[in-house]
Backbone:
């Protein structure tokens, strides 16, 4: 069966196509070359005047795993504001800040997204992350496994194990947890919190292990690179939310010595201490450092105003911030000598100086970083705002007049502390396509996704061009997933199950010797029962695994 | 005859996964690391292998068709029990969504004590491996821990080695409220737990005073519910002096009215201690026979714990109104579906309503249900996933034998399929 998409204006940065009118053909779920003249076209969509992009990819969104489910259970009052009815096609659930799994899939697809990646998969909680993502329809998914506060790694560092041993452990963990990347959250800090340390700077030692965050970043970034994992070490840095942390972030960039590194939700790590309130924007310095250091990629973690819930592995910083909980309830957990988590509901207010400036800092970052291939559009869902606010965020980036109108309504002191009004840049459609499609696929290392040239899977989103970019991006005309129409006019018309993207870096099998001994002595589960089998993902016919290639060193 | 080792148990809630089970045809024998909870649950023999409608043996398809017919004509179905694995809960929630049922996990009345506290103010909790390696003081509130989980102390407190304690036998154990029924809490070197007994229903008062003492508030009384305030002061001091204190309670054991307020006081006390330059964590005990599993899967599927209704076409959570006892007694439901794949003794509540039972083979009834579909047990008859008490670790359950019994998911999906076909 051949499907033809006729006459759309194609924005495909991966294929070097910038708004050119052209036809696309789909066969067996993939984009193919134009068939021989006279070949039977089974279905044709007339897309004249429409904007065509590949399906969007959210490279950092908390959609699977224990802390998200704690956030759900914690906030029944938030769900009650946004009940979602079942239909003949779709399951019921809830929406807003932390939607139910099925609703997550539907609402992402209805915005033109076809993949989402959970950035904080605790190895010991990886089963849950995959089971939740297994209940998210339509989307492809994957996860970055969290290391850096696990006692096994810190013991290795204290014992001065060599890089090869660390690489084996990292690769083994990625395979056991079925991951496509590695994340570190407050490097060593979650562990230090268990020893009653309440902050941990880049060069501050863990009181038990004597290891610093800088050392952890160095060995993990090296491991990821040497293993050939495409996605650079995904870093949630030290001192999240602390005024003055811009210096920590700059030091982190400098200190990694040219190794590939992705700094996530950098907005939360770009704060200075200037001004009457001792809180200021460090976005210009951060953007300058990112522009200069080509080994660095970032996503923003934009905040938008309203009620949300913050769910993070950073138990240390979440505990420090629990006094801001709104409504006033919060959870932290220490988890299995592996990691931790903290869940704090949060209401960002436009008349609050700090919140207003956070908003401006995120937008400054977007607009001051030159290379759209190295910056990604995120709200760190749900931490900065729920993912459903992306169309609004895209309008803020693409429409200077609208942006400045919003800015003029914010806390007046915050307006004085941002250069935002003087920044003229407006993102183009091609730049949006880079940030949310081609760049994300390239960064994660997704083969045959994020592009529209023949050979790619047919994940395609079609929009009606509209000067109001929010309206345009919140209601695509069509969304195709693996060549099947799943959304028409912004509504799900068909559901299916996506695949789980992973990599399988090599390790020396002898790594299990030390691990088995450690599991038997100190953990609460047998090593064999810890590893996630392929069957756990693919049973019931719901899921599949897609193994992506490693990058030769 | 074969023996399978490193078998995980879905029955005890503490995630033991070191059992050895000998398999001889369909009969199982726990040959290593059994306990009073796990051994009988594994060794329970299979009896029924065929579904019944009104007592007559039928095929699974016929049973599903009859169940669907009952659900189709019902105004308000109720799905109780909810004791199964992750896939069983997925199928259960799909059926509830389609039939507009109310869903309730049978242990919700106990779990509610925790959920109401969580949803009102939150908590700071920990998990079993942290207890095993860090806990230097365990305060057990109102619960006979070794009856709840016979191997808790052996596995998580008196373990030979820990990463951060030089000598695990020096850990302190304090019981407040209920006294232990055995000696599991006595350390390997013979040190007995401290015990401060009071009646369960006096715990709200006792815990309120303990929290006040932790915060340094003056208490004029000399004793509370028979416990000397000086003893409570010593507990408060011990918690503040501990490096990593852990406060544990069984929500089911706190069997008095508005026990959620006691859970809340304990949880807020734990938070207070974390602001006094040391660490302390809560550890709620639960996780038996799929209760954490039910709440986790219901949580990600609906946003709410497992006392949720679908009758309006979307999930609505109400921890009081969706109570099976209330609804069944008041005639607010007209068909009962009872799901329990773990425990043959956990039969549906007595009711005159037409009842569909999806239950572990071996279940017997004083009154034959309208439909009975005997199913296999997750972790014995089929693979699956179950949550441990700390809610973080999902254990991968193994298939141990070839019984041919359908899983809960098979049975409930067959009913949902029949309902779907019948409604077209």
Residues:
């Amino acid at each position: 069966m051949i499907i033809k998409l006729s006459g759309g204006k194609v924005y495909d940065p991966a294929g070097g196509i910038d708004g050119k009118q052209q036809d696309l053909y789909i066969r067996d779920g993939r984009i193919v070359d134009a068939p021989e003249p006279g070949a039977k076209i089974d279905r044709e969509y007339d897309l004249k005047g429409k904007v065509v992009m590949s399906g969007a990819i959210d490279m950092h969104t908390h959609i699977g795993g224990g802390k998200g489910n704690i956030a759900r259970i914690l906030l029944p009052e938030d769900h009650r504001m946004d009940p979602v009815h079942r239909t003949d096609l779709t399951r019921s659930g809830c929406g807003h800040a932390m939607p139910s799994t099925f609703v997550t899939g539907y609402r992402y697809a209805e915005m033109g997204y076809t993949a989402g990646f959970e950035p904080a998969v605790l190895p010991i909680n990886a089963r849950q992350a995959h089971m939740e993502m297994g209940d998210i329809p339509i989307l492809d998914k994957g996860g970055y496994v969290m290391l850096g506060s696990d006692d096994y790694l810190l013991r290795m560092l204290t014992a001065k194990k060599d890089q090869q041993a660390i690489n084996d452990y990292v690769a083994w963990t990625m395979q056991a947890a079925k991951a496509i990347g590695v994340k570190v959250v407050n490097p060593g800090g979650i562990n230090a919190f268990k020893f009653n340390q309440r902050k941990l700077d880049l060069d501050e030692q863990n009181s038990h292990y004597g290891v610093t965050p800088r050392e952890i970043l160095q060995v993990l970034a090296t491991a990821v690179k040497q293993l050939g994992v495409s996605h650079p070490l995904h870093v949630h840095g030290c001192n999240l939310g602390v005024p003055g942390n811009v210096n920590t972030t700059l030091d982190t960039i400098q200190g990694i010595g040219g190794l590939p590194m992705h700094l996530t939700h950098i907005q939360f790590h770009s704060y200075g201490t200037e001004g009457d309130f001792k809180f200021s924007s460090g976005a210009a310095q951060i953007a300058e450092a990112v522009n200069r250091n080509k080994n660095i990629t970032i996503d923003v973690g934009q905040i938008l105003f309203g009620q949300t819930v913050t769910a993070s592995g950073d138990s240390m910083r979440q505990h420090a911030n629990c006094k801001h909980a709104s409504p006033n309830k919060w959870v932290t957990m220490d988890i299995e000598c592996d990691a931790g988590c903290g869940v704090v509901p949060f209401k960002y207010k436009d008349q609050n100086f700090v919140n207003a400036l956070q908003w401006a800092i995120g937008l400054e970052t977007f607009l001051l970083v030159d290379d759209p291939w190295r910056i990604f559009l995120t709200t760190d869902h749900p931490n900065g705002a729920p993912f459903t606010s992306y169309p609004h965020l895209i309008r803020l980036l693409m429409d200077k007049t609208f942006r400045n109108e919003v800015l003029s309504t914010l806390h007046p002191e915050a307006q004085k502390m941002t250069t935002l009004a003087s920044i003229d840049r407006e993102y183009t459609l091609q730049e949006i396509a880079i940030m949310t499609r081609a760049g994300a696929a390239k960064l994660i290392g997704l083969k045959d996704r994020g592009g529209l040239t023949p050979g790619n899977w047919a994940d395609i989103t079609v929009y009606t061009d509209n000067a109001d970019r929010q309206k345009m991006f919140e209601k695509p005309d069509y969304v195709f997933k693996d060549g099947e129409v799943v959304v028409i006019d912004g509504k799900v018309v068909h559901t299916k199950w996506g695949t789980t993207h992973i990599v399988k870096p090599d390790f020396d099998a002898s790594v299990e010797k030390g691990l088995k001994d450690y599991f038997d002595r100190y953990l609460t589960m047998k090593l064999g029962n810890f590893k996630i089998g392929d069957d756990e993902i693919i049973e019931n016919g719901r899921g599949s695994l897609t193994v992506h290639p490693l990058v030769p060193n | 005859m074969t023996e399978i080792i490193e078998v995980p148990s879905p029955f005890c809630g503490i995630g033991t996964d070191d059992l050895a089970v000998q398999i001889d045809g369909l009969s199982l024998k726990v040959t290593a690391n059994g306990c009073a909870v796990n051994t009988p649950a594994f060794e329970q023999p299979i009896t029924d292998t065929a579904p019944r409608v009104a007592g007559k043996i039928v095929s699974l398809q016929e049973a599903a068709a009859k169940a669907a017919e009952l659900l189709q004509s019902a105004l308000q179905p109720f799905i109780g029990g909810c004791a199964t694995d992750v896939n069983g809960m997925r199928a259960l929630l799909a059926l509830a969504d389609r039939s507009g049922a109310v869903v309730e996990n049978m242990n919700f009345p106990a779990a509610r004590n925790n959920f109401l506290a969580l949803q009102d103010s939150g908590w700071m909790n920990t998990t079993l491996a942290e207890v095993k390696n860090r806990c230097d003081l365990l305060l057990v509130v109102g619960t006979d821990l070794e009856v709840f989980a016979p191997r808790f102390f052996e596995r998580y407190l008196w373990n030979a080695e820990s990463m951060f304690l030089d000598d695990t036998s020096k850990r302190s154990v304090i019981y407040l409220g209920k006294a232990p029924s055995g000696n599991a809490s006595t350390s390997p070197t013979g040190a007995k737990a401290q015990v401060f007994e009071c009646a369960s229903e006096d715990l709200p008062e006792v815990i309120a005073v303990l929290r006040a003492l932790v915060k340094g508030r003056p208490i004029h009384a000399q004793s509370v519910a028979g416990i000397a305030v000086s003893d409570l002061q010593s507990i408060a001091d011990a918690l503040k002096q501990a490096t990593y204190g852990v406060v544990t309670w069984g929500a089911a054991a706190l069997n008095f009215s508005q026990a959620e307020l006691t859970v809340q006081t304990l949880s807020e006390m734990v938070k207070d201690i974390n602001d006094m330059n040391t660490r302390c964590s809560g550890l709620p005990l639960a996780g038996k026979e799929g209760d954490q599993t039910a709440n986790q899967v219901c949580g990600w599927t609906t946003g709410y714990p497992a006392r949720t209704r679908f009758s309006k076409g979307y999930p609505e959570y109400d921890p009081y109104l969706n109570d099976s006892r209330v609804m069944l007694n008041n005639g607010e439901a007209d068909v009962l579906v009872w799901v329990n794949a773990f425990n043959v003794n956990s039969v549906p509540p007595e009711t005159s309503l037409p009842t569909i039972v999806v239950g572990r083979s071996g279940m017997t009834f004083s009154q034959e249900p309208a439909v009975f579909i005997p199913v296999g047990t997750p972790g014995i008859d089929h693979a699956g996933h179950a949550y441990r008490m700390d809610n973080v670790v999902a254990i991968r359950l193994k298939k141990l034998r070839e019984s041919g019994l359908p899983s809960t998911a098979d049975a409930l999906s067959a009913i949902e399929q029949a309902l779907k076909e019948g409604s077209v």
